[in-house]
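ASSEMBLY PREDICTION REQUEST
Request ID: AP-0331
Submitted by: J.K., bench scientist
Number of chains: two
Total residues: 274
Priority: normal
Notes: Please return the full assembly, not individual chains.
Input sequences:
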Amino acid sequence: MGRGTSLGRVRGLGSAHAGPHHWWMQRVTAAANLVLVIWFVVSIARLPIIDHQALVLWLKSPLVAVPMLLLTLSTFWHMRLGLQVFIEDYLHEEGSKIAALLLLNAYVIAAATLCVFSILKIAFGGVPA
Amino acid sequence: MAHNPARPLSPHLTIWKWGPHMLVSILHRATGTALAIGGGLIFTWWLAAAAMSPAAYAIFYHWVVEADPASAKAALQSLTNLLAKLVGIGLTWAMFQHMATGVRHFVLDTGAGYELKTNRRFARLTLVFSVVATVLFWLVVMGKY
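STATUS: Completed
Returned structure:
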């Protein structure tokens, strides 16, 4: 333990009173994922949405576009929370841990934004079918 | 966290006899990681390609689903199609396994299901569920196309 004032020594250590929120949001997004992923899997099994035209027509319905948006937000949020714990558990070197966490956030934010924009573009008729 | 590599580590991973509860616990983490990276990237590619243009979607389709016989790369695409199918089956199983162990965690969160026999049975059940659900899903999908 370094020198410095009592406050300086404890700063950055100990509880930040932010842990329960992470834990709770992992459960909340998990519950949402359970419903949304089952809907998505059943949709894939029932509809030929691997075909471009079928996919575009499917996504034009608000009752499809909105669940797809919610699915994107909930799963990518859940991924961020889960992989964060994975990184914190296995990367003990401070530099690589922070680099991995930054990379994780960049991936999740970029991919989720790309998905949201793509869903909206198709839903609003930006892609001819 | 600062740690001294010269200090001994407790043999926490090697001294235990493996049981289904340990297996599904580590599988929950492994499948979650695979889904976050593999599933996340394929899902994003699929949606972004669909939103870009029919030509961009055709690239996704030919490399992942079905080779383009007119393409000079048809043979290579047939190979990636096969790999994509294996990855797809793997990710489907990972999704059902993660779903089942996720529900298991919800039950454990309430403080229930820690009795040895119950815990072991629930853990085994998640493995049975994921395999059965994966087989059923692919039978339906392959029967359709």
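REVIEWER COMMENTS: The first helix of chain B runs from residue 20 to 52.
SIGN-OFF: pending second reviewer
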